Amino acid sequence: MAQFETSRRSLLKAGTAAAAAAIAPAAAHASENDKSVKFDGEYDVIVVGSGFAGMACAYKVAKAGLKVLMIEKMGVFGGNSAICGGNMACPVNPVQKAQGIKDSEELFIADCLKDGLGINHTELLDVLYRRGNDTVKFVTDCGAEFVPNKMLFEGGHSVPRSYEIKAGSGSGYIVPMYETLSKMKNCVMKTRTKFDDFVLDKDGRVTGVVCREGYRFNRKLASDDVENKTGHRRVYKARKGVMLAAGGFSRDIWFRQVQDPRVVPSTDSTNQPGATAGVLLKALEIGATPLQISWLQFLPYCNPHEDGFGVTVNFTNHACMDLGMVVNKKTGKRFMDEHAGRKIKTDAELKVIGKDKNYPIAICDDSIVKAINPSFVKAPLAAKTVFVANTLEEIADHFGIKKDAFLAEVKRFNQFVKEGEDKDFHRILKFNNGLTISKPPFYGVEVAPKIHHTMGGLLINPEAQVISSKTHKPIPGLYAGGEITGGVHGASRLGTVAVLDALTFGMVAGENLAKA
Amino acid sequence: MAQFETSRRSLLKAGTAAAAAAIAPAAAHASENDKSVKFDGEYDVIVVGSGFAGMACAYKVAKAGLKVLMIEKMGVFGGNSAICGGNMACPVNPVQKAQGIKDSEELFIADCLKDGLGINHTELLDVLYRRGNDTVKFVTDCGAEFVPNKMLFEGGHSVPRSYEIKAGSGSGYIVPMYETLSKMKNCVMKTRTKFDDFVLDKDGRVTGVVCREGYRFNRKLASDDVENKTGHRRVYKARKGVMLAAGGFSRDIWFRQVQDPRVVPSTDSTNQPGATAGVLLKALEIGATPLQISWLQFLPYCNPHEDGFGVTVNFTNHACMDLGMVVNKKTGKRFMDEHAGRKIKTDAELKVIGKDKNYPIAICDDSIVKAINPSFVKAPLAAKTVFVANTLEEIADHFGIKKDAFLAEVKRFNQFVKEGEDKDFHRILKFNNGLTISKPPFYGVEVAPKIHHTMGGLLINPEAQVISSKTHKPIPGLYAGGEITGGVHGASRLGTVAVLDALTFGMVAGENLAKA
After folding, report:
1. Residues in Cβ contact with B451 at an 8 Å cutoff, skipping those fewer than 6 apart
2. Least confident of A3-7, A38-42, A75-79, B452-456
């Protein structure tokens, strides 16, 4: 059967870039001779993107003996996944059981719905519950290592349910997966290769991709997706299907501001610069269903004096927010449940920060620092983003916190921990294990939210198939997982659930592609 | 230049329906011979949809002497516009000035941003401010009649700034516009004609539409857009451009639930049954930019015992919420600022209603009823949706309101009105003009929110041009206005602003098409 490109309407034909205007008009048609396409290579499966969802899918498919092509537009593999925190939620797992932590599917879904404002697609959360332990086994088999017998108590979760990755970041999954894949003859992985378009057969099945090899992302362009014409065009056939794992658009200056005009070009993001909306938007052109695209999530424990993700996030989150406290400099007092979900904390912090950039101060002490992963402390100390002092008074002086109120507030907080009840913000304190802010040295760090995750995306079903808005059925041959999809998290996600989400739906897509 | 249909990827070729499966696969390609299209007719402008935005655009263009085709998929013209309340906001207008009401662009935009949660596109709100008085003149010239020297004080607006349409509904604009257009030889209007696809030229300019004449909307289908294959295919050329004025998707059972899974098929809507997402989704296929599509707005003054919009909305809104009060039956007390924006009130009501359907009761008295448009009272009295009694005790008995607390609450509310200060919910009371709930007979009515408006849609610029996500520039030949667009209202719109929005951007699109 003859193959047709959708790309007769596409601009991104670098091979003929000389003939195209600098910015071509919308929906331009290609030349006559694109009705049948000449493939430059054939694979069983083509994976677009190399983060958690892409790696997991490629791994599953390659291990099944199929021929895989993974394309990554940036110069390195791993996307945001390689630089994220990397800890992974898993509801109802054996470590919880061994520690007497009672968890359930209902509790997990209720926690997700709370920060997600109730608009999560629970049929997808159900997949995370049903397959979570399979995912843990899968990534462990891949070579990922978790801190043994440890469950993190992450913000917004009602119980400790998150595995801590030993490596201290998502590289703990990406590196071993990549190393295995790079040794497999049936897996080809290409960096600097940008997805441009789909190839469809006459029945609408996705049968390949148009891409550009030798493309170089240019962060100086206002919009790399629109303006960058580098690289040479290649068309590859995917006999079984295509997996979209291209991530979110937190760094897409134009598209994110269309969704939320309050986000200006200078608004910082924790994401790598290649996090743009190009693949998502191209999927809409073949009828993929958009959902909840306008919800941008901020990470509420970033440092305003670092660019991007920085090195301080894990410290602020796991030391000061999981176990310590956060105060408003102007009042010296706490102003939120430091263990709430990301949306609740972001909203509270933005109110405090206001127009005069009154960044909240996150606080902890030596006993707390000794209780967390040592790697979380080293980097911010070296970067001097965290201020260390022998007394709380010095902390107050350094940051300009209203001193008397602050000292009283620390005492009040410590009393709450001892009594196991937060009378001000109803924070769950039982997993503090009695840790208070009492033992010098004391630590303080400024806090600000940065754009972290774009919650919406393409609609998938529990089999990771992309659903067409034209038929309400799967688009044949098209799968997706991770941040390019929407629905799992609703309006806002809890920490460590995205890692589970991307790895699980990558694995599920791989399973389904292997038997397709 | 040869014309190409995008519809080779489309299913909706009723002319060859016999050859198509009942539900064809996504992105199916059409037959070989669709590279050049045979037009069944040529117009200067084709308008898709016949509500405010469509009528205003067609009127402007037809009056300029151009040849216009307006297509409407339903059996009657007017869409939701014909059945909506019809009152129209206009910031900084002469009636306000004559009455000493101080308004400004800043105040108008601040009001919209408040209920819109700050995500409105203010460059579009600015158009409503700059062109609002032009729109009033335009619709008056068209034959619309407002109640003279009257400004309505609508929920969420800080000052009275809305014209009251004499007819008591949006038909007050639609009917005179339609009557004029139907007499013009250069304007052809077709009902039961469903838009299926765009025709594009090789440079991506929209040069026509594919539609089906003799189509019959079938409300019994799970999805009319996907399943209904009725009608015969026609392709029409649009020499200057195409205007999308196809409205929102409040009745698109599938697509609205994808955006908000809490909305189930039985969730009622004020909209006519044809309010589906088909045209919006087809525009995404040619690269139109989606924005804020997942925000559904509920109308917080509907009657749960009527289907759809019903006949009670204007009474509940203008008598009980603008001037009277609303109580929780269980407490007998008020629970919200009855004059807040729609999102704030919807959220408050849904909390009260809960799972046991504890509908709030909206109350007013004879003096209030005498102050509003008499047409707002007649219909609900005839439909018996409103309960009338000589005493407040009877009202309490009838609805099961906690009586003593309720009687005390009415006294408290009346005192607030007299003092001009709402100590409980900070409602603006100065425009109540001293009207209290004191004079029998008294009126009571149950209240529930229904899906009313889908806030997001296509991105347009201030010239009503649809913006491509592929170029960040206008898609040549494509305009849009009204509910199919997004951004003006952000997350939630204020009452009477949508009428201004749709008529203004319809007018602007018409102006630009006339000079295109």
Report:
1. B250, B256, B263, B267, B268, B269, B270, B271, B296, B297, B298, B299
2. A3-7
Express each pLDDT in A410-467 by its tens digit. 999 999 999 999 999 999 998 999 999 999 999 999 999 999 999 999 999 999 999 9
**CATH code (residue A473):** 3.50.50.60
DSSP character string of B185-233: TTEEEESSEEEEEEEEETTS-EEEEEEEET----TTSS-HHHH---SEE
- CB contact under 8 Å between A261 and B203, yes or no, is no
Q: How far apart are CA A99 and CA B184, in angstroms?
A: 80
Is A287 within 8 Å of B281 when comparing Cβ atoms?
yes
Residues B343 and B437 reside in one and the same domain: yes
With a pLDDT cut of 70, the percent of chain B lying above it is 93
Q: Do residues B399 and B485 share a domain?
A: no
- The range of the structural domain enclosing residue B312 comes to 298-450
The domain total for chain B is 2
Judged on CB neighbours under 10 Å (0-12, 13-18, 19+), A423 is exposed
CA-CA distance, B72 to B279, in Å (whole number)? 12
**Are B511 and B393 part of one and the same domain?**
no
Cα separation, B114 vs A392, whole angstroms: 40
Contact at CB, B287 and A289, closer than 8 angstroms: no
- Closest chain A residue to the Cα of B35, Cα to Cα: A32
Which residues of chain A lie closer than 8 angstroms to B471, CB-CB?
A: 11, 23-26, 226
- Residues of B noted as catalytic: 342
| CA distance linking residue A447 with residue A496, whole number of Å | 20
B366 and B413 belong to one structural domain: yes
Give a yes or no: residue B27 inside a domain. Answer: no
Contact call for A203 and B29, based on CB within 8 A: yes
pLDDT of A8 > 90? The answer is no
In a domain? residue A26: no
Which residue is closest to A116 within chain B, CA to CA?
B260
Complex ipTM tops 0.90: no
Last residue of a domain, one of B450, B470, B500: B450
Of B6, B26, B294, the CB nearest to A292: B294
Q: What is the secondary structure of A157-210 as a DSSP string?
A: -SS--EEPBTTSSTHHHHHHHHHHHHT-TTEEEESSEEEEEEEEETTS-EEEEE
CA distances from A8 to A28, A285, A428, B38 (A): 7, 12, 56, 20
Tokens of B508: 């602007």
- B321 shares a domain with B190: no
Instruction: Looking at the structure, tell me whether residues A189 and A215 fall in a common domain.
Output: yes
Do A200 and A83 belong to one domain?
yes
Best of A37, A294, A343 to mutate (most B CBs within 10 Å, chain B): A294
| Distance to chain B for A202, nearest Cα, Å | 5
CA distance between the termini of chain A: 19
Is B261's CB within 8 Å of A121's CB? Answer: yes
Dist CA B198 CA B211 (whole Å): 9
CA distance A273 to chain B (A): 19
The answer on B149 and B284 residing in a single domain is yes
User: Among positive and negative, which fits the CA dihedral A364, A370, A371, A374?
Assistant: positive
Interface residue of A9, A11, A33, A252 to substitute, partner B, most B CBs within 10 Å? A9
The answer to whether the Cβ–Cβ distance between B9 and A11 falls below 8 Å is no
CA distance A200 to chain B (A): 8
Which of B119, B261, B473 lies at the smallest CB-CB distance from A119? Answer: B261
Spatial CB neighbours of B358, under 8 Å, sequence gap ≥ 6: B328, B329, B330, B352
Q: Tens digits of per-residue pLDDT, B179-206? A: 999 999 999 999 999 999 999 999 999 9
Contact A29/B293, CB-based, under 8 Å?
A: no
How far apart, in whole angstroms, are the C-alpha atoms of residue A324 and residue A491? 27
